[in-house]
Each structure stands twice: as C-alpha cells, then as structure tokens.
Amino acid sequence: MKPTSSTEEDRLIVEALKEAMGSEPHALRRLTRKAVAYMIAVAFLALAGWFFRWDITPVQHGNGLGGVYMINRWTGTVYFLDYLERIEVKPAK
Questions:
Q1: Rounded distance, CA 45 to CA 63, Å?
Q2: Which H helix or E strand runs over 88?
Q3: What is the domain partition of the chain in residue ranges?
Q4: How many CB atoms lie within 10 A of CB 54?
C-alpha cells in the first residue's frame, strides 16, 4: 500500500510500530524501566569498584606518629602516606 500524503505515511508508520510492538501497549515502557534498572546496577557496581580500589593498612613509626600503606588494587602501586607526604614504594634494586 503506497501512501498518498505525508499524514497518510505517518499513520502507516504508527500502525507498523504498533503492530511490531505487539498487542501489549506497555511493552516499550517495561523495556525502558528494565534498561534503567540495568544502568543503575552498572553505575552502582562501578561506584563500588571505585570505593574499594584502595587497601589501606595502618603502621606505627618509631617516633610515635602513625602512617599508612595504601595499595592501589587496580594498578598494584603501593604508597606510604606519612603525616605530610605520599611516597611511592618501589622494589629494591
């Protein structure tokens, strides 16, 4: 069936979309909610991965001040954090 005008073409497109979606009118809405739920889950997992990126272990200095070893779980880099500075720990040569 060939459309005779643009409004007829629009009507045919709408009918074809309705037919493709099936008889249930809320199928597209449910798909959208499901997609949003997946996006929220992925964002939550990415945020949790970012929060648990570091492993921090406190240590005691000989002078009574504390420090921490901070291990980056993504890259394997180890830092020693003192009161005023952050020093990257490198393997001995």
A1: 41
A2: strand 86-89
A3: 6-51, 54-89
A4: 13
Q: How far is CA 60 from the centre of its chain?
A: 36
CA distance 26 to 4: 31
In the numeric block, which tokens belong to residue 64?
């009574």
CB atoms < 10 A from the CB of 1, how many? 5
DSSP class of 84: S
Q: What does the pLDDT look like over 29-66, one tens digit per residue?
A: 566 778 888 999 999 999 998 888 888 888 886 776 77
| pLDDT, tens only, 1-35 | 555 667 787 788 777 777 776 655 555 556 677 88
Give dist(CA 1, CA 48) in Å, integer: 55
Bridge-based pairing state of the strands 78-81 and 66-72: antiparallel
This prediction has a pTM of: 0.48
